[in-house]
Hints:
five-stranded antiparallel sheet; globular
Amino acid sequence: MRYSISPHPSSATVALFWLALLVGCSRPPDRAARGESSAVADRELTPYRPLLRRVGVGDSAFEAQADLPYDSARALAGQTGGATASVGRVPGAPGRFLVVARGSESTSDDYGLRFHLLAARPTGLVVLDRSRGTLDSYVLRPVFFTGAGRTLLFGNTGAEGSWGLVVYELRGDSLRRLGDLDVAKMPADPSDPYEDPLPHARVFAEAAEGEGFQVQFDTDLVSVGSGDDDEPLRRSGGAPLRFRYRAGRFERAGNGP
């Protein structure tokens, strides 16, 4: 689904377009530069978490990628029709941007913060696609995992604590919803809110499984249900917890590789 923007771009939009062409996009660190050469590194996707800074003042303030000029970030934020939380680049895709915002289109079961995929075109900015809303979540923090010809997008949701993860894949001009991974990081103090598990995540492609992949966490987790249904997931012997995505759903894959 595509949403067109005005064919008469502002000066800020024009500046953004040329910036996208000249600067390109932030890229995840090269595996060779990190000294990884094992078979595991060959099938591990590279994590990329945009470095964000607070820009603007008052109710109009939002987070923007550190290398984006303010006028460019503001032009991107103005395309969603709602309050913006963050603006950043899509790794490995020059001229593509991800905006987290509430947006102007919502229904009783599809509202709240969502991902917006944007592109800079000669005629201006285009909103290529929108994800589903995350309902009452106060946060939606994106982390990309790229490699093996794929760009996976994970988002931590929640309020005071984590409510689990939403997972998408960027394919061309689309955000393809893969599902929810209902886990959060177990806090050191059980009385504290659950924490974002993504800083502890690694993602591995499964060539033999087509679109399948595995997510590994090197920390204890909690399976996020409702109230007393939350179930602790603890590592055995220090081995990481793994989850496999296949046939349109996530399932527990045990400990270790």
